[in-house]
Design a protein that fits this description.
Blueprint (H helix, E strand, L loop, with lengths): L2 H6 L6 H33 L2 H9 L1 H27 L3 H28 L1 H7 L7 H13 L1 H16 L3 H25 L4 H23 L17 H35 L2 H37 L3 H28 L1 H8 L3 H14 L3 H16 L3 H27 L1 H47 L1
Helix pairs in contact: 2-3, 2-9, 2-10, 2-12, 3-7, 3-12, 4-5, 4-8, 4-11, 4-12, 5-7, 5-8, 6-7, 7-10, 8-9, 8-10, 9-10, 11-12, 11-17, 12-13, 12-15, 12-16, 13-16, 14-15, 15-18, 16-17, 16-18, 17-18
Protein name: Multidrug export protein MepA
Family: Belongs to the multi antimicrobial extrusion (MATE) (TC 2.A.66.1) family. MepA subfamily.
Subcellular location: Cell membrane
């Protein structure tokens, strides 16, 4: 099937089959992507030590911050490309591709330079102690040095999905995970490079995958491909990309701020082992969150295309299916957290104190998961259809507007337990807010859908 035919099928093929076709590779890819940090923590926890896991946890805000800038370009560009393909504006879609490459290069290099200059003060601000700072510094020096390749890799994967190449995007991600495991084995187990070995493995695997992505996007036979004349930044396209990407940017930025606050509160009320326990709990939660993000990424080109072509009935069908799948995934995560926390913790560490902290953190962190899948899909849905302000509000409601105040108040009364209580409380509250917002907008969508059907019927009668 050629690329153009695959793109046109977004508006004709049954929605259920399309979601399966696009979401399954994305789920596999996102799950594989989450294995980066999980694999690193497994190697580091078993071979370097509990303090090293705590040090790696301190780098979470850095990873979220880098991801925020990457999402601003990658998600924004992929959504813009999907909409333009739905409108059959192929020239603009191709120019968005070129501008995506340029933006990733500029942002990736600038982010690395600034962060490397102020690395130690930033890590201290993120919650690093005298014990964890050396581990966090060793890891981030390597990650930041190769950050431009990471930015480009994630951005091009998003473009591949928007260009009707979800399988190739999945293969690129799986390749990086396999190479990461191989290189972790070599660098950490054989060469004893410690936490730096984990960082080298991550960057090297992404660089190799990027070469594969660029070869795919350089194929002149494809509907979208790299060529001369598309790399010069155009203000209109940059505004389009950033305008859509601002929502996931703020989402990741909020995650960064929240993790900074969580880390500092954990150090204050529980010490380095509490930080490490939260890092393990976050690793477990990330697997299921990535599943839902894969569903969202599978929904994105379908929703974007059908919104662009004004097929609102198909738009609502893909939304409803995505919510059902996401809810099932997150409920599975809750079952794992409630009934298998000790088994999961033992994968990362044999330290008894760190295991105890990880079990408690995992249970509390995922207790409201059956509700949060709905919130994630609805937030992404508004982003896909260009309702950026609504998407931003829903993103902020979960992380910044609810969680941060709870993290400041509850520990004053309950100590370390107050931090654990705040996590599910914010998730449940955000899900309720998303439900009411979606209910209000659903009325508007149904009205638009009825108007569309009426116009089509009148047109057939006139014919």
């Amino acid at each position: 099937m050629d690329n153009k035919k695959a793109t046109l099928e977004l508006g004709t093929k049954p929605v259920g089959k399309l979601l399966w076709q696009y979401a399954l590779p994305a789920i596999i890819a996102m799950t594989a992507a989450s294995l980066y940090n999980i694999i690193d923590r497994m190697f580091i926890g078993q071979k370097v030590g509990a303090e090293a896991i705590a040090g790696l946890t301190i780098t979470f805000p850095f990873m979220n911050l880098a991801g925020a800038f990457g999402a601003a370009v990658g998600v924004g560009a992929s959504t813009a490309i999907s909409v333009k393909l739905g409108q059959k504006d192929y020239a603009t879609a191709e120019n968005v591709l070129g501008n995506t490459v340029t933006l990733n290069l500029i942002i990736g290099v600038a982010f690395s330079v600034v962060c490397l200059i102020f690395l130690d003060p930033i890590l201290r601000f993120f919650g690093a102690s005298d014990t964890t700072l050396p581990y966090a510094r060793d890891f981030m020096q390597i990650i930041l040095a190769g950050n431009v390749f990471s930015h480009m890799y994630f951005g091009m994967n998003a473009v591949l999905r928007a260009a009707s190449k979800p399988r190739q995007a999945m293969m690129a991600t799986i390749f990086t995970v396999v190479m990461n495991i191989i290189l972790d084995t070599v660098f950490i187990l054989w060469w004893h490079w410690g936490i730096r070995g984990a960082a080298f493995a991550t960057i090297a695997s992404q660089m190799m995958a990027l070469c594969y992505q660029m070869s795919l996007l350089s194929d002149k036979k494809q509907l979208l491909h790299l060529k001369r004349g598309i790399y010069k930044l155009k203000s209109q396209l940059v505004k389009m990309i950033i305008g859509v990407g601002i929502s996931p940017f703020l989402m990741n930025l909020c995650q960064c701020l929240v993790v900074i606050f969580v880390n500092n509160q954990l150090v204050r009320y529980g010490g380095d082992m509490a930080v490490g326990g939260y890092g393990i709990a976050n690793s477990v939660a990330t697997i299921f969150v990535m599943f839902v993000m894969g569903v969202n990424q599978g929904m994105q080109p379908i929703a974007g295309y059908n919104y662009g072509s004004r097929q609102l009935d198909r738009l609502m069908r893909v939304l409803n299916l995505s919510i059902i799948v996401a809810t099932c995934i997150m409920t599975t995560g809750w079952v794992v957290a409630e009934f298998l926390p000790h088994l999961v913790a033992r994968i990362f560490t044999t330290d008894s104190e760190l295991t105890r902290m990880a079990v408690v953190a995992t249970k509390f962190n995922m207790v409201a998961f059956p509700l949060i899948g709905f919130q994630m899909v609805v937030t992404n849905f508004f982003q896909c259809i260009g309702k950026v302000k609504v998407s931003i509000f829903l993103s902020l409601s979960r992380q910044l507007l609810i969680l941060v105040p709870l993290l400041g108040i509850l520990p004053c009364f309950f100590g370390l337990d107050g931090i654990w209580y705040a996590l599910p409380a914010s998730d449940a509250s955000a899900a309720v807010i998303a439900f009411f917002v979606m209910t209000l907008y659903m009325r508007r969508f149904k009205k638009e859908l009825n108007n569309t059907v009426t116009q089509e019927t009148n047109g057939q009668d006139n014919y």
